[in-house]
Amino acid sequence: MKEARLIINPQGTEKVIRPPYASVVDSVLAIGDKKEMDISWRNIFGEMKQTADTWKEIYPYQDETHVNLDAIAEYPDKPFLIWWASDMHIGNVDTEYEILQRHIELIENTPNCGLVTVGDDIDFGILPRFEVRFMQTATPMVQAWTAKDLMAEFNGRNPRGKQLVLAHVIGNHTHSMMQATGVLYEEFYRQSKAAILPGLGQMFLNYGEENYEVGLAHKYFGRSRLNVTLEGKRLMEYHYPNADVAVVGDFHKSAFEKFNKGGKTRLVVRPGTYRVGTGLFENNRGWGKGDLGGSCTVFYPDKHDFQAFNTLEEGITFIK
After folding, report:
1. CA within 20 to 30 Å of 61's CA: 7, 166, 183, 267, which one?
2. How far apart are CA 166 and CA 174, in angstroms?
3. Cβ(166)–Cβ(82) under 8 Å?
4. Segment 58-68, tens digit of pLDDT
5. Domain annotation for the chain: domains and CATH numbers
């Protein structure tokens, strides 16, 4: 557009009309060397797939694990006890450290015993709740390194000189750290000899003449305060229909139920927690104080049977 004159009133007053500023900019850009974007969704898909493939190669989780208890049991013709070490919450002010230490040492010093961590072994997580930030006895780093040292002990540096931990299940406290920061807490299990299940998975046990299938989850749908074992039954019904035993943590309630379904005997276990000091958090929300952990199950090598106990002391007395 060129400069022009426009009469704006009856007196013949003229106004000069000049090209708008935008046209000047256009003329400058027209002779520039602006880089043009060349986006191809196919190329981007390829790059995304390459990154995803790399992540899967280093992904530390697996959906199932096979465990041969004969390799761990000192007396393979006798029953074997598994401690469901769920919701230890190492690092919380309400954790019962003396009881937890006693249970750890019971497992380490008693033949024919092992354990599975069922999530929230440390307390710290990046969650929108006050107690995660302000009810800690140690920094996140100290909690994580404490768990790392404990797992090294369970994996061979113990009085029995054996790998005692059979599997790890991650919990919502530790997984929240990855979601919010990209830091994977489970990296501290990298040197563990046991498989890491991503909050949900199967453990196939071979012991003597028997095979057992165990469904594991830190949490699952179907939670009920009136029927504490319902969550484990839902895990069997919708995810692991062939499971002999289902173990679900997170709820901080301890219970077990043995029943018949589909022509076979089954067992559901809720392992409780070690965060039971004052119960401030649970009581404040009307949940009631949590139940002390120590739930365990005894498996037989010569008959397809299992027996649950709410306390570790009862279970160990039974196998002795």
Report:
1. 267
2. 19
3. yes
4. 888 899 999 99
5. 64-319 (3.60.21.10)
